[in-house]
């Protein structure tokens, strides 16, 4: 071919790989017509073509002539949403988890985008502690106001009874299911916009229109996923309530939010959990069936969540954190009474010399006071 430039080439299977003037490797559009069986057996090629082995080798002629045909690889991602009836996978996350002492020391400047700070928007219901990262509240109010209004309405009507707090474990907690259902019942012009969802991320790679799927990942099921808009479902809003699970479940949720936000599937993530004042109040008081503390420090609550986020949990996904506080619990007055009696008993033992002449006598008396206080809220059988 007149004026053509020679560049190095070799064969690989049915394709001829050409080194272009820029130094890139580009496959030729044409493929060889020689049957694969002939190439493997080393039989001759059609006239005018050199012989090539099935492996990576130099052509018989060593070079080919022709205009450079550069194909740039392209990749695209797409998402698939599907309702799931499978039970939640409670696998333990492998992410690093700060221990109790380290978590207590984690502090962050609220002005940093990834640190937990106070929300700016108004109209959030009372009875909760709130925290935001990366302006999640402003994003929700400005771009996803319908989903934010749904969330506010569900939080505003949400309550827990003392009997529900004391109820034994096993299965999905009643008031958590009630909260999810309150979101599921929300409608946008008659259309259901909230529900359990699994989001699948697939990646395709290839040349021009010849794309092949090279990876497919199914994210963890989201308890409540709100469609972004009726005419454009993604990105949406993900909501998880972690009431009394093991605290590594936070890592699972935060990792899931980070991955889905990075791929454009969610605009913000919301985690609802026990607030710091509620945990301080019920932690030492409410007991499980076996008599141990039902809401221990190693379970999911505010002071386990915030340090994880301040350490980078959730990546660049904007987060709205919601802590349920005592004002949302009906009948909490009895817990307050028992908590005060336990605190008074502890103070009496700490200052036993003011009340007793003998330390053993003080211990016996305080033990009686503590047992009497705990008996007011016995474990639910």
From TrEMBL:
Coiled-coil annotated residue ranges, if any: 335-362
Annotated GO biological process: DNA restriction-modification system
Biased composition (Low complexity): 40-51
SUPFAM superfamilies linked to this entry: Restriction endonuclease-like (SSF52980)
Electron transport keyword on record: no
MF terms (GO), sorted A to Z: type II site-specific deoxyribonuclease activity
Region listing for Disordered, in residue ranges: 1-58
Domain of life: Bacteria
Database matches in Pfam families: Endonuc-BglII
Keyword annotations from UniProtKB, A to Z: Coiled coil
Name of the molecule in the record: Restriction endonuclease
């Amino acid at each position: 071919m007149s004026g053509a430039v020679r560049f190095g080439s070799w064969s690989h299977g049915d394709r001829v790989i050409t080194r272009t003037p820029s130094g890139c490797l580009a496959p030729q559009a044409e493929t060889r017509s020689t049957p694969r069986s002939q190439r493997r057996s080393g039989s001759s090629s059609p006239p005018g073509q050199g012989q090539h082995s099935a492996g990576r080798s130099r052509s018989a002629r060593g070079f080919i002539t022709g205009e450079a045909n550069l194909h740039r690889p392209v990749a695209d991602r797409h998402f698939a949403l599907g309702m799931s009836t499978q039970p939640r996978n409670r696998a333990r996350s492998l992410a690093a988890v700060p221990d109790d002492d380290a978590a207590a020391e984690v502090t962050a400047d609220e002005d940093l985008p990834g640190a937990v700070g106070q929300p700016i928007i108004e109209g959030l219901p009372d009875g909760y502690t709130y925290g935001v990262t990366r302006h999640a509240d402003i994003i929700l109010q400005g771009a996803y106001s319908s989903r934010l209004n749904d969330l506010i309405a569900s939080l505003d009507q949400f309550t827990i009874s003392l009997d529900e707090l004391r109820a034994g474990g096993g299965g999905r907690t009643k008031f958590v299911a009630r909260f999810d259902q309150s979101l599921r019942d929300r409608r946008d012009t008659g259309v259901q916009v909230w529900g359990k969802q699994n989001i699948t991320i697939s990646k395709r790679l290839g040349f021009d229109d010849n794309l092949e799927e090279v990876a497919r990942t199914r994210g963890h099921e989201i308890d409540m996923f709100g469609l972004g808009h009726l005419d454009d479902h993604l990105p949406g809003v993900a909501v998880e309530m972690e009431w009394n699970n093991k605290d590594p479940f936070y890592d699972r949720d935060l990792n899931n939010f980070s991955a889905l936000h990075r791929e454009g599937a969610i605009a913000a993530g919301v985690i609802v959990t026990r607030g710091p004042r509620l945990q301080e109040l019920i932690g030492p008081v409410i007991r499980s069936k076996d008599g141990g503390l039902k809401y221990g420090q190693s379970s999911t609550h505010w002071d386990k969540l915030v340090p994880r986020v301040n350490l980078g949990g959730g990546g660049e996904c904007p987060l709205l954190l919601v802590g349920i506080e005592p004002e949302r619990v009906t009948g909490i007055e009895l817990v307050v009474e028992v908590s005060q009696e336990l605190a008074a008993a502890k103070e009496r033992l700490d200052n036993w010399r003011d009340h007793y002449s003998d330390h053993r006598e003080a211990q016996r008396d305080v033990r009686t006071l503590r047992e009497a206080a705990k008996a007011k809220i016995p474990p639910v059988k």
